[in-house]
Amino acid sequence: GQQVQQSPASLVLQEGENAELQCNFSTSLNSMQWFYQRPGGSLVSLFYNPSGTKQSGRLTSTTVIKERRSSLHISSSQTTDSGTYLCAMENTGANTGKLTFGHGTILRVHP
Amino acid sequence: NSKVIQTPRYLVKGQGQKAKMRCIPEKGHPVVFWYQQNKNNEFKFLINFQNQEVLQQIDMTEKRFSAECPSNSPCSLEIQSSEAGDSALYLCASSPGLEQYFGPGTRLTVL
């Protein structure tokens, strides 16, 4: 089965609304990252967040290791937030840094 | 954000041809990864290096794919005999040890 499940698969918002993206892991994890993928394909690292809560501007990431989940909260969404958001994990025991990715959440923010 | 350089950005090859792509990791990052993202947005880990040595690679990499990360030269990933199913975005990432930073990718189209 899939080790990393992201939800929702897609999300449509009006500008100014908040978004909550979820990532659930089927195995215990060493580390996890949230990425934003630009339409051209390049990945921008948003958070390296193996546990706890981190904030950067309008973005907040919370990882709860014992519940095997992580969330990305976007407050006051803007049209420029549109794109694909990916979470990825390194599971325990791997020790090579290899990331396993979810399928992503496609976010569209309308003006 | 990321200073990983990948060339070329786009690559078009015929079936059976060799396809070679390069990656310059961020300075001071000893670990380099290659991932493949297919048209269904599924990521597949291919291979990773630490200081020129292979840490882990998957079977397909061992057979038709070759990769190296020589000192003082760009890392490279080469497909010896391209197949239609190899059409994908190839992403290189480098890491100082934990967080991974991705380049813009090489989009390979095999006709």
What does it look like?
Chain A is mostly beta strands and 111 residues long. Helices cover 0% and strands 59% of the residues of chain A. Chain A has no helices and eleven strands. In chain A, the strands form two sheets. In chain A, strands 2, 4, 5, 9, 10 and 11 form a six-stranded mixed sheet that branches. In chain A, 36% of the residues are buried. With 111 residues, chain B is mostly beta strands. Chain B has one helix spanning 59-63, and strands spanning 5-7, 10-13, 19-24, 31-37, 43-50, 53-57, 65-68, 75-79, 88-95, 101-102, 106-110. In chain B, strand 9 (88-95) and strand 10 (101-102) form a beta hairpin. The mean pLDDT of chain B is 93. The chains are: A mainly beta (111), B mainly beta (111). The interface between A and B is medium-sized, with 20 and 26 residues.
State the helical fraction of chain B. Answer: under 10%
* Number of helical regions of chain B: 1
Q: Which class do the helix and strand fractions of chain B yield? A: mainly beta
Mean pLDDT of chain A: 92
From the N-terminal CA to the C-terminal CA of chain B, the straight-line distance is: 34 Å
Number of strands of chain B: 11
Class based on secondary structure composition and strand pairing of chain A: mainly beta
Strand content of chain B is: over 45%
Q: Based on CA inertia axes, which overall geometry of chain B fits?
A: globular
Low-confidence blocks of residues of chain B: none
SSE string of chain A: EEEEEEEEEEE
Task: Give start-end ranges of low-pLDDT stretches of chain A.
Answer: none
Largest interface in this structure: A-B, 20 and 26 residues
Tell me the strand percentage band of chain A. Answer: over 45%
Number of strands of chain A: 11
What integer value in Å does the Rg of chain A equal? 13 Å
- Helical element count of chain A? 0
State the helicity of chain A in percent bands: under 10%
First-residue to last-residue Cα separation of chain A: 38 Å
Radius of gyration of chain B: 13 Å
